[in-house]
Amino acid sequence: MPPTQVLIPGNAKRGTPLMLAAPSVALDLPLRVLVRDDCQGSTRASFHTAAELEGAHALPAAPRRWLLRSGWFLTRWARRRPG
User: Fold this and answer.
1) Cα four-point dihedral sign 68, 45, 48, 28
2) Is residue 23 classed exposed, middle or buried when 0-12, 13-18 and 19+ CB atoms within 10 A define those classes?
3) DSSP readout, 23-56?
4) What are the DUF302 domain coordinates in residue numbering (predicted)?
5) What is the pLDDT of residue 82?
6) pTM for this prediction
7) DSSP code for 57
8) pLDDT tens digits, residue range 7-34?
9) Are strands 43-46 and 4-7 parallel, antiparallel or unpaired?
């Protein structure tokens, strides 16, 4: 198996309101990012996007804003990774 890590950038202060608003979102929190090397020697980052999580869980507007900001951050981070 190639080098692989799971990063967990969780925040209880942010995740708790999401879980109170839509309890099923607890299945996907804390957010997780799978970082691995592929067969070509590149590094790949995989995670559920904010849009995917929003679609899977009926989130009200206020907690949804935090999830969208987190998704934006993860997307920017993944695009900046070398590999």
Assistant:
1) negative
2) exposed
3) GGGGGT-S--EEEEE-TTS-EEEE---HHHHHHH
4) 1-48
5) 56
6) 0.71
7) S
8) 998 878 888 888 998 899 999 998 898 9
9) unpaired
